[in-house]
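Box 3.1 A note on notation
Throughout this textbook, protein chains are presented in two layers. The first layer is the amino acid sequence; the second is a token string describing backbone geometry. Keep the layers aligned when reading.
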Amino acid sequence: MMMVKKMKVSELLLILSCVFSVSADVLHEDVNIHGCSDTVAESMFGLDDEELWYADFSRGRGVDAQPDFVDPVTFPGRYEFSVSERELCRTNLKIFGKAYKDLPPELDPPSSPVIYSRDDVEVNEKNILICHVTGFYPAPVNLSWTKNGEKVTEGTKINVPFMNKDGTYNQFSRLDFVPQQGDIYSCTVEHPALKEPLARFWDVEVQQPSIGPAVFCGLGLTMGLLGVAAGTFFLIKGNACS
């Protein structure tokens, strides 16, 4: 069991993370994370850096984070378990709060955002832009999108933070979009460890098929055929005269 204890500027964040493995040659890792602060809490289960389930405490239910096309792993009774873990975490939080009261806060800034499209870009074809940041503490970050300089909120989604092995976090945001030639998108990350937001831009560049080679090849073929026809004409005419 790994216990990570770090403090935010006005609150203490307590995270309990368990990574289960059988041996050094194990093929898969199960991840179980429970965390809380004075105002928020998190409980999630994952497999090999993929989020499988998390507790949505604001809605009072568990959420299966797996895509629809896979055979999902179910977690019966996990939400109730997560509620009990949240209460235990907050009890321990008060104890740690007194013990670490005078320690300075620890902040790790996120990496610069990385933006990429889910599918190959085709004009007028629906697609998804993905923005990823990693290496930050504490969680979460604030990720926002713009299109041609205008803020975009419709069609955006953000996952819950996922813990890295070093105790920092990574997080993804998605934007549904329809590519149009020349459009410029940006993803901006904000975090208490940053003096100013970090932004990364991504523009729609779709390679159009070039007609130049086809035109020149067609023209060359036509001229060659005309040359063959002219040569044949003069050859026949010369044989007739002799």
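The first strand starts at residue 2 and ends at 7. The two ends are 104 Å apart (CA to CA).
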